[in-house]
Sequence to fold (405 residues):
Amino acid sequence: MLTTPLLRLSERLAQLTPSATVALNGKMSQMKARGIDVISFGQGEPDFPTPAPIKAAAVQAIDANKTRYTPAGGIAELREAVAQRLLADSGISYTAAQISITSGVKEGLFLAFLAVCDGGDEVIVPAPYWVSYIEQVRLAGATPIVIDTDESTRFKVTPAMLEQHLTPRTRVLVLSSPANPTGAVYTAAELHALAEVLRQPQFAGVLIFSDEIYDQICYIPYARWLRVAPDLAERTLVFNGWSKTYAMTGWRLGYVAGAKPILTAIRDIQGHSTTHPNSVAQYAALAAYTPSAELEATIATMVQAFRSRRDLILAALAQQAGVMCDVPDGAFYVFPNVTALLNRPFANGITCATSLELADYLLEHAQIGLVPGEAFGAPGYMRLAYAQSEASISEGMRRFAAAVV
Ligand SMILES: Cc1ncc(COP(=O)(O)O)c(C=O)c1O
Fold:
């Protein structure tokens, strides 16, 4: 029989919080398996299929037996395509040695935290945050320093807030625009102001992790960090990928670009862990980054659909007395403030004290899955992902309204 000491987990894991969205999805799957018709606002992924030319490239890669190990940082053609894209987008020239293809942006971020953080280092993470930043920082042995934001700054960090949280131990600032869960997008002026703070000599040792995964899903002109602060390119790691823009969440492909010593370290860790991302997925991603009018039109159609769904869900939320929702300028999430629904009985006599309880209540009583703000370091809010059909959004919001009278 196994004894408890044998099953002891590492101290590293003792503080790991499982993903709330994964937990919600598990609960919803169980309900669906029992035949219950659940509408999910939980899933942060496009409902569109991966575009046809990308799928065709993957099939071709299989037929051509491109199914063997690739270099740790990814195939040369894909790294070159990424370099071209980065040059066009940000004006910065990267060599292949400065780019690594990873199994999703998630892996890229994790490898980067592992590569640059030591115990005692601080990583600044604006809240509401994408949950994995916090856990990855902790797994890398560093300490997350959270900057709380709310509607008053449209969920964005101001220069004063940043300056208050920077210390001699700050190693990284995580900058995410458009952000998950709020959809907040920084303007060029706002990025300029943050860059001014980071240019001060005492903060010269701070790296910037710019997570740009939603850059194409943006409803206002996108302000790119390195266009605003090209002088900070040496201190910036850019993260991007294919999951959201190309509806390729399951292919698990992303990339990280930045200073060569850090990218070399990232590839070294890859070499000893995953080796490299799936070879067939890399050829599919290459097709996605090969200029094509057909593909561009497909992406434009998807983004247009997200935009009208955003407007639909915002209109439904506006009908909800007391619920405030900042208009998100990007991604496919809304993040309403639901405090007006807490601590007051609904018509059925049930009262919810927290957004966590409200999420449970809505799942049980209205069969709609939403992620409570607690998961993103922001109690009192809810995240609703609207990457689903308009009919489903309308029905979900009807259930929401009916459950909170
Ligand atoms: C802000 C942000 N960064 C990174 C990721 C990870 O994306 P990927 O599927 O490429 O690992 C997500 C996914 O939800 C995200 O929302």
Observations:
- The two ends are 54 Å apart (CA to CA).
- The pocket of pyridoxal-5'-phosphate is lined by residues 44, 104-106, 130, 176, 180, 211, 213, 241, 243, 249, 254 (CB under 6 Å).
- The mean pLDDT is 95.
